[in-house]
Recover the amino acids of this structure.
């Protein structure tokens, strides 16, 4: 966890120095203790990158307790993080090691907090997922960006 937090810090500092945006796959796991999105939100504010950082997946939020998430979402909103949920792939990949009931690896609803949310699909050519090719056209139809 400490190495991951340091990597997030370095990424944000480098982006700020070079005037770049950040797009990071973040907390793509079932681990409710994965806290890299919290570090990303804090570093976004510290480096003055508000509105220029996007975090993808955030599936660990599905497993986090509500008390922690009620503190995390306002931090994300303050940082003006963009969020990209990837439900088509994460519903397949997450919860693999669970018995029933299985977690489905979907992030939480974040638009109500004022965050910009988009849907994506980043595994369109994974041959181990038989329906991946069929979902290409569905993904394009589902793709949307919304701001409340």
């Amino acid at each position: 966890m400490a190495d991951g937090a340091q990597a997030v810090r370095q990424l944000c500092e480098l982006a700020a120095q070079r005037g770049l945006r950040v797009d990071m796959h973040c907390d793509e796991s079932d681990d409710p203790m994965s806290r890299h999105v919290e570090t990303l939100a804090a570093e976004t504010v510290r480096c003055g990158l508000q509105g220029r950082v996007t975090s993808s997946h955030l599936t660990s939020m599905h497993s986090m307790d509500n008390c922690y998430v009620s503190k995390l979402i306002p931090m994300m909103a303050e940082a003006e993080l963009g969020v990209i949920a990837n439900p088509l792939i994460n519903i397949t990949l997450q919860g693999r090691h669970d018995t029933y009931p299985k977690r489905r690896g979907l992030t939480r609803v974040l638009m109500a907090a004022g965050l910009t949310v988009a849907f994506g699909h980043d595994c369109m050519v994974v041959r181990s997922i038989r329906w991946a090719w069929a979902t290409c056209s569905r993904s394009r139809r589902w793709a949307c960006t919304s701001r409340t």
About this structure: Strands lie at 22-26, 53-57, 82-85, 116-119, 145-146. The radius of gyration is 15 Å. Residues 66 and 134 are 35 Å apart (CA to CA). The longest helix spans residues 2-18.
